[in-house]
Amino acid sequence: MKILATLRARAGEQGMSTSEYAVGTVGACAVGGVLVKVAQSDFFNNFVTGVIQKGLELLPF
Prior knowledge:
Layout: H1 2-11, H2 14-39, H3 42-57
């Protein structure tokens, strides 16, 4: 009896993991889209270029 009650309780939650994965996937795609937009901006490009140039200036050759 106890096993049957446990199985019934779990059966009602089967779709929960699928919807949680869907929400997580949509959230990850949104964050990825924002990162792509930031990476394509002039500010980010100038920042990365400046960091690389400063790093190269520190090299002894």
